[in-house]
Structures are given as structure tokens and as C-alpha cells.
Design brief:
The structure holds two protein chains of two kinds. Helices cover 34% and strands 26% of the residues of chain A. By secondary structure, chain A is α+β, with helices and mostly antiparallel strands. Chain A is globular, with a radius of gyration of 15 Å. The N and C termini of chain A lie far apart (49 Å). Chain B starts with a helix and ends with a helix. Classes of the chains: A alpha+beta, B alpha/beta. The interface between A and B is large, with 40 and 49 residues.
């Protein structure tokens, strides 16, 4: 049986900040809460069938070919790139601490974003920030 | 073997004392763990708060037959290993006198056993397997002694062990924090159908338990309203057992025919007493519309949690509002080594959850295999046993893997969760390493090896997947799905040969 986090918890996460209470309650029943031990992999580079995650508690490392590239923390999300591109993840996401996340099954991602445009807009904003950071990094800036 | 170990031990219930393992529970998860411990000669005690075996099946489901099938006449012969694929309710044994018990107990009126039939199935297994369960002995407390051993307190005395396995089910009624919901009966407290004659019945929730009740009340209730924030998910749409099962779809059809059943996607804000009945106040999930419904009866079909007792105080980490323990791929507490979980609770170890589709660990046909893998893991890693790792010739390897993909009930019942592993080390040859959690194989360094399993697509098609581990790196290869699930054909053999060429 799926485990449903509380709407209050969702409201405290930036990604869902623009939704009202009934919408949060609906999302509460759409996502499933999942837990990972330190060192456990959540996304696996090159392995298909992944899902979308939002971190509720703890930290995770982004690793590409074994090299750590970034740290994710509460409110950060991951898995959307591979789902949008229809490809296996290009990085491992590994729990650095005990980690609690909200999980949306990969096949539900498109319908979810279309149903909640404010969430899609927040996600685009975050992705734009990531793109800018990547551009600056590649420019040596 | 199991029978001889049990015979040597005698059949009496486990007295308090020191044991390598203590198993708590007497449902299918506990019984399977006990039988596997017997099979490997690991000493244990087994205790249960209940007066007889069966776990939740002593009382639930309330009205209907089980949701899990047993087909007496299947493609495979009873007692053959592939038959387990078609018999989701029998526990596992290498002993034909104990295996495939369920079909011999069912009366033939349905492929879904009745609750009493399932209870008899489990009681028969416990008796024939001579499991030394001590009933009416509730586990009351847990502490860890200075030497690391666990001490389980019961009214009969203390049980001390190196490993404790809790198979205590997910049967503790759980309610959300909705105002007033504590005043209405939970699913487990639902009355006899006659008591709902002519009434307006409201269920908080739209999952299987709600649909079970609605199905039973269709001939009795005046009106049935089922509400929760999210639309009902159907197993035939979701392609997983987490959705409402096909057997319970009549209320769903009635709702679309406007025939006395209503499915509302609304947030339940409060349940208030109103005379002999209730007023249920709701707000629309998408449109924010307010609605008050006058109900004669309200039933909270809001799910269950694990009765973890004092384990969180011992250090067992939990998630999902404390409802489930956080587990490793081998079902051990991530925070308190030596505490393991079996049975329905084993679903807390989610595995890869490819495409979000969960394992079947929440049902007997899934967790019975977890129990077998768990006990072999205990034997190897804690009790120092060298388990048999049969050698395979290179010529036999592809037919062996094709056999697993076509016939192995572990892989078909626990898709994308359990895998058959074969190691291919230059110095040690080719060895069958048995069944392993797939996430363990994918995530843990180990010798060069190949693991095969079956996996579902989001559309519900099932295909074989092969994971290759070479020099510490794991690569995924998928094969085409066969319309008749037969992977003995030449095309599959060629594909497997091509994959395995990496090791030659």
C-alpha cells in the first residue's frame, strides 16, 4: 500500500508552493513517500525505468561515472531529465544521509505536470538556473 | 531438510530462552521464515500474540474472498516449481506433503480462496511443517543486551536472540488526522451487511478495502458515496496490484451508470455527528467546491500501519509517518542491524520500483520468496554457513537462464525485484548463486556475474531483462517480450549468447 505524506509537508516544499490546500491534498495522494539508507542509490546511471523524486529530508550526491558533481538537499528534485528525454538517467543519485523522498512514478510525470502548470513553471525555473550554471561553468566563468 | 529438523526438535511450542533467531508472528510471512530456518538447520523460537496461525487471514478480508488467485488446473502440474506462479496462496516447501496446499483446500467455487480456506491453508502448513509456534504469547518489549543480543519480553518470559525477525503484518488500523475520523468505525470494525440495509453509506477512501465494502453493500445500502482526494486507481489501468482489483469493479461501473454509487475526488475536511448519523464536509480537489453529505454510516477505509511496538525506541528508523520501517534490500533495519522484517512488511524495501511499479512483497506470492532469500542471507552472513553454489557448464548456461526466464516463479511473481544470479569468475568457473534482490545485485560490488529477471513496461508488457556486472560496472540489457512468455526459443538463446559473449 502506498504511503501518503501530509499536505502540510508538501506545502513546505518550494516546488509545490503555488498550490492551494485541496491541490496539495490531491498531490499528497499521488506521490508516495520512500526512504533510503545512507549509500543507497535512488537513480542509477544507465538503468532504465526511473521515477521523479523530491527530497523531503536528508542529502543526496549526484555522481557521474563515479565522480561526485553536486549535492541535493531538502526541496531539491531529480529524475525529471531522464523522464523528459525518455532516456535512462545520466547520473547516479546516491543517498548521502538517511534520505526521505516523495516519489512520482515515471509514467505519471507528464500528466502530473500538465495537470499542475504552477509546478511545471517552478520546475522550469530551477532547470533554467541549472542551465545557466552549466553555461557559466563551460565558459569558465 | 525441514521435516527432519523439526522432528529432531520436537513439536512443542518454543519456551523462553536463548536462540539464534526469534521469529515474531504466525501469519504467512512468519510461517515461511520458520520453515526456511528449519530447512537450513538454524535454531529459532517462534512466538505469536494470536491463539492460532493465520495472521490477518484469521479476520480479514471482512466480506469478500481473497484478492489472490490459486488455479488448481494450471499450465504447470501442482507441486512443480512453475506451478507456484499460478498458486499465489500456498507457502513454499521442497516437501510435497507441505507444498501447494491451497488448491486441495479450496472448494472449487472460485479461483479466489475464501478467508476461512486461506486460514485453513496456513494452519495446515504450520501443523505439517511442525513449526514450534508458541501462541498467546505477545511480544511486549525489546531491548539490546550489552553483548548485542536482542531480548524480547513476553508474559511467558524473555527470549534472547542474535537475530529477531518481525513478521507482524501491516494490520494495525490507521487513520489520517481528519477531524472526527476517530469517531467512525475503521474498515476492520465494519458491521454485518444487514446492519447497513437502507442506509446512506460513506467510505473515506477509494482503494481496495473501500471497494470491497462497497461491493458487499451494493444489495443493502440505499446509497454509497466513496470519497478521497485522488481518483480511484484501477489495477487493470495501473498494471499493478496497487490499483482496485477487477473483482471489485461493480461499484465503479455503478457510479458511471448513476446507479446509486458516487465516486468523489474531494478532500474530506471534517466528519461531524448529526443525530444518529454524520455530516461529512468535503472540498473538491480541483475546483475547490464545497459539499456536505448526510450519511447514516461512515467507514474509514484508510489503510493500515505496522504495529512496531517499541522498536522505534530501540533505534529502528521509520518513514511514511512512522507507518513502515526503513529497510535494506535484505529487509534488515537500516538503523538497527540484527532486526529483520518479513511478510507484508517486507514491502518497505522498495527495490528498483521501475516505472513506479512496486513489487508484490505486500502479498503472499511475493513475500514468500523474500522469506526464502532472507533466511539464506542470514545463513551466509550471520551464521557462517557455506551454501551450495552449483556449478554450471558454459554449454548449460544459456538454457539455464532461458529456463529461469520462462519458468521461475520467483522472477514472475517478484518482477524487477528478485533476480537469478550466476557468477562467472575466471578462477571459480560458472556458479548458480541463487535468487537475490535485484537492487543488491545492481548496487553492490561483486564478482563478474549476470542476473536475469522479468520486468514490466508502463503499458503492462513483461519482458526479460539481463544485468551484466563486469569489473564492478553494471549494464542493463533488455530482450524482446514474447507474446506467450516462452523464452526457450532460438531468438532468445541467440540474444543471451550475444550478451554472455562479453564474458568469454
Amino acid at each position: 500500500m502506498a504511503s501518503d505524506p501530509s499536505a502540510n509537508l508538501l506545502a513546505s516544499l518550494t516546488l509545490f508552493a503555488d498550490l492551494d490546500t485541496p491541490q496539495l491534498e490531491a498531490i499528497d495522494h499521488t506521490f508516495e513517500e520512500v526512504a533510503f539508507a545512507p549509500g543507497e542509490r535512488i537513480l542509477r546511471q544507465g538503468i532504465s525505468g526511473s521515477n521523479f523524486y523530491v527530497i523531503v529530508e536528508g542529502e543526496a550526491a549526484v555522481r557521474i561515472d563515479g565522480t561526485e558533481r553536486a549535492t541535493l538537499a531538502r526541496g531539491d528534485f531529480f529524475g525529471e531529465m531522464s523522464l523528459l528525454l525518455g532516456e535512462a538517467p545520466s547520473a547516479d543519485i546516491v543517498a548521502r544521509t538517511a534520505l526521505r523522498c516523495l516519489m512520482l512514478p515515471g509514467p505519471d510525470m507528464r500528466g502530473f505536470l500538465l495537470r499542475y502548470p504552477p509546478v511545471m513553471y517552478r520546475m522550469l525555473g530551477t532547470m533554467a538556473l541549472r542551465l545557466r550554471a552549466a553555461n557559466r561553468s563551460s565558459d569558465g566563468g | 531438510m525441514a521435516a527432519s529438523a523439526a522432528a529432531e526438535r520436537g513439536v512443542g511450542p518454543s519456551p523462553p530462552g536463548h536462540y539464534p533467531v526469534v521469529v515474531v508472528g504466525s501469519g504467512p510471512g512468519a510461517l515461511q521464515v520458520c520453515h526456511e530456518l528449519d530447512a537450513l538447520g538454524i535454531g529459532y523460537a517462534a512466538i505469536s500474540a494470536d491463539p492460532s496461525p493465520g495472521g490477518m487471514f484469521r479476520k480479514l478480508p471482512i466480506f469478500q474472498r481473497l484478492l489472490s488467485v490459486t488455479k488448481p488446473y494450471a499450465w504447470a502440474e501442482q507441486h512443480a516449481r512453475p506451478y507456484e506462479w499460478y498458486d499465489w496462496n500456498s507457502l513454499l516447501s521442497d516437501d510435497p506433503a507441505i507444498s501447494a496446499l491451497m488448491p486441495s483446500i479450496m472448494d472449487g467455487s472460485s479461483s479466489f480462496p475464501s478467508r476461512p480456506e486461506m486460514e485453513r491453508n496456513l494452519a495446515t502448513f504450520a501443523e505439517r511443517a511442525r513449526i514450534p509456534l508458541r501462541y498467546d504469547t505477545p511480544w511486549q518489549s525489546t531491548r539490546q543486551a550489552d553483548d548485542g543480543r536482542f531480548v524480547l519480553g513476553t508474559p511467558a518470559g524473555e527470549y534472547t536472540c542474535r537475530v529477531a525477525v518481525f513478521a507482524i503484518g501491516m494490520a494495525e488500523p490507521w487513520r489520517p488526522a481528519t477531524p472526527g475520523i476517530g469517531e467512525v468505525p475503521h474498515y476492520v470494525e465494519t458491521g454485518p451487511v444487514e446492519s447497513y440495509a437502507g442506509k446512506r453509506v460513506f467510505t473515506v477512501g477509494k482503494q481496495n478495502s473501500a471497494f470491497e465494502i462497497a461491493t458487499a453493500l451494493l444489495p443493502w445500502a440505499r446509497q454509497i458515496v466513496m470519497a478521497s482526494p485522488r481518483p480511484a486507481k484501477l489495477s487493470v489501468v495501473e498494471h499493478s496490484l496497487t490499483g482496485v482489483r477487477a473483482r471489485y469493479l461493480q461499484p465503479y461501473e455503478d457510479a458511471f451508470l448513476a446507479n446509486g454509487v458516487f465516486l468523489l475526488d474531494m478532500r474530506i475536511e471534517a466528519i461531524e455527528r448529526a443525530g444518529d448519523g454524520y455530516t461529512v464536509r468535503m472540498r473538491g480537489t480541483l475546483d475547490g467546491r464545497e459539499l456536505a453529505y448526510a450519511a447514516d454510516a461512515v467507514i474509514a477505509t484508510t489503510g493500515f500501519s505496522v504495529p512496531l511496538g517499541d522498536l522505534p525506541q530501540l533505534g529502528v528508523a521509520t518513514f511514511a509517518q512512522g507507518k513502515q520501517p526503513a529497510l535494506t534490500p535484505f529487509w534488515e533495519s537500516v538503523s538497527t542491524p540484527g532486526i529483520f522484517f518479513a511478510g507484508t512488511i517486507s514491502q518497505a524495501a522498495g527495490g528498483l520500483k521501475k516505472h513506479g511499479i512496486p513489487s508484490n512483497s505486500g502479498a503472499v506470492h511475493g513475500h514468500r520468496y523474500n522469506a526464502r532469500v532472507l533466511v539464506r542471507h542470514l545463513a551466509r552472513t550471520i551464521f557462517g554457513q557455506e551454501l551450495e553454489r552449483p556449478r554450471l557448464s558454459r554449454a548449460d548456461l544459456v538454457p539455464f537462464l532461458a529456463d529461469q526466464l520462462t519458468l521461475a516463479p520467483e522472477l514472475w511473481n517478484q518482477r524487477s525485484y528478485l533476480a537469478r544470479v550466476v557468477s562467472l569468475e575466471p578462477d571459480d568457473g560458472i556458479r548458480d548463486e541463487g535468487v537475490s534482490p535485484l537492487s543488491h545485485f545492481v548496487d553492490t560490488p561483486g564478482p563478474d556475474a549476470v542476473a536475469v529477471t522479468l520486468e514490466p513496461t508502463p503499458e503492462g508488457h513483461i519482458y526479460p531483462a539481463v544485468y551484466i556486472r563486469r569489473k564492478g560496472a553494471v549494464e542493463e540489457r533488455v530482450l524482446d517480450a514474447d507474446p506467450l512468455n516462452d523464452y526457450h526459443g532460438a531468438a532468445v538463446q541467440r540474444a543471451l549468447e550475444e550478451i554472455l559473449a562479453a564474458f568469454d
